[in-house]
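Lab notebook: predicted structure, single chain.

Context: the supervisor wants predicted structures on file for every construct in the current expression panel, including those that have not yet been purified. This is the next one on the list. No modifications to the sequence; it matches the entry in the shared construct table.
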Amino acid sequence: MISKKLLEIMLTEKHITIREATSKEDSVIAQHFYQMWLDIGVDESNLLVEWQNITLQFLEDAHRDLFYKAFIAEVDNTVVGSVSCQLFAGLYPNVFKDEYRKFGYIWGVYVEQSYRRQGIAKSLTNRAIEYFKAIACTRVLLNASPSGKPVYSSLGFSEGNLMQLDLI
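Prediction complete. Output recorded below exactly as produced.
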């Protein structure tokens, strides 16, 4: 186990860069999205074999229609994390003016295990929030994993009250 003091020293030696991803890195984003599900306990047998094609098609559509952007975290020029963000497409028809309700949605926040608990997910999320401010969003939404909740709470996200009924 690494002591907090040693971790602080290690972090000062690493140079973390957060930058906008290019469309050439969509496959990295797709891989991170897939790995995120595995890391939170979804069995691989529950994921479609064509997960990569589905994700890449989604990204293509989101780039075109939903102001999609992704941001990459690099440590010493190695990609160690990513975040995706886009306009929220909604669950029902959007009948509101943008200045009243223009929601951004953050998804796929992922940091490789050996780089977790170093503030990278928080930095990625902040970069997505900055993007949403720049395009005049009125609110940012996300669905958090249990391990992500403290990160998002520290950034001011409210605790949600999603209600659900399991049928299987």
